[in-house]
């Protein structure tokens, strides 16, 4: 493609200058593979962007989208409903932990997070606790790119350009990764549950009566797969319950089987008050996200002293509960169930674990960690060139038929649930070759 043909599009989270000199164009996708314009097949090491665990081009999802587009292509989201969206909400509620049985739809993980934060703030207000305005996030967290999400998020590069424009009243817990105590952990680290006690410090600092919610990812994905220590989430749950603080799990990555269960909450045995979701709900085919809410939180809005015709929550999107997205979601949920894909992810977990931990001892490998069908491999940065080592590993992988995911100097893995053990083995061996091959400037 002529570089001039690429000038109109500003790519997100991309080194645009480099890309437009060295474009990498995908032409098609099927199963666990992308196909490039020159006909090469790339193994999809990260399920698109954590969002295509069923693989690409599944005919049942495509057919569901086609049928819905021909039947009801758009339904206004305000004051009107459609059957597909109500059915999808019911199906999602059935998969969620007991008690979380109300679903509010948006279009992405970013919108899901901002929705959850707004619900939390509004919930306390309708209960007469409007003084609960503070939101607590965590260092190194990724909660999307809305102003709410970057405010509670903790990835510095995502916040730096917008300093001074964050939500007021936000504070952060420390992240849980400590290489001196946790390096090369398999599954949940045994050290670190005490890090949850920092929430008590924030309660003492700000007073519990001012704190609305705490939001955390069960497993921090975009920052490089940081796995929660044993007992850590349980302790957060206890502290939030004692002080009347809502606990939000951001499960945009961990929802729909990534940890071998419907949601990370079930795999980890901790039930939050709200769960955000997106990505895997439609297998990445149509944008869709949302929030699963505890039933009594929903009822607090419904029991407000206002006439029945009054709107209870002034929030929503033009495309909330879009019928085509709902149809894609219903088809995806059918496939997860019919093909046993959540169990398949659990069965592949030890295969991925063994493959990535074989990289220990390779030059520049600083850490390897895994949980569910996720893994992160930390590389030591080249001196004075942070990010370059992983970027060159990505380039090497691309030329050798593997589509790696890079975040800083970490290679993150979240392969499709339909992957084979042989494919996961080749993925790790290609990474080994790339690690040995790359050099600094």
Account of the protein in words:
With 441 residues, this protein is of the alpha/beta class. The model has no long low-confidence stretch (mean pLDDT 96). The longest helix has 18 residues, at 109-126. The protein has 2 domains: 3-54 and 341-437, Aspartate Aminotransferase, domain 1, CATH 3.90.1150.10; 62-338, Aspartate Aminotransferase, domain 2 (3-Layer(aba) Sandwich), CATH 3.40.640. The protein has 16 helices and 15 strands. The protein starts with 15 loop residues before the first helix and ends with a helix. Helix 3 runs antiparallel to helix 13. It has a 7-stranded mixed β-sheet, sandwiched between helices. The chain has a 4-stranded mixed β-sheet with strand order 1-2-3-13. Strands 11-12-15-14 form a 4-stranded antiparallel β-sheet, covered by helices on one side.
Outline:
By secondary structure, this protein is of the alpha/beta class. 37% of the residues lie in helices and 16% in strands.
How far apart the termini lie comes to 28 Å
* Largest beta-sheet characterization: 7 strands, mixed
Within the CATH hierarchy, at the fold level, what is the topology of the largest domain?
Aspartate Aminotransferase, domain 2
Which second-level CATH architecture of the largest domain applies? 3-Layer(aba) Sandwich
SSE arrangement:
Blueprint lengths: L15 H6 L4 E5 L2 E4 L4 E4 L2 H4 L8 H13 L11 H13 L4 E7 L2 H18 L7 E5 L8 H6 L3 H4 L10 E4 L5 H4 L15 H9 L4 E6 L15 H12 L2 E5 L13 H5 L5 E4 L11 E6 H8 L20 H16 L2 H17 L7 E7 L2 E6 L8 H12 L2 E2 L1 E3 L2 E4 L7 H17 L4
Parallel strand pairs: 3-13, 5-6, 5-7, 7-8, 8-9
Antiparallel strand pairs: 1-2, 2-3, 4-10, 9-10, 11-12, 12-15, 14-15
Helix pairs in contact: 3-13, 4-13, 14-16, 15-16
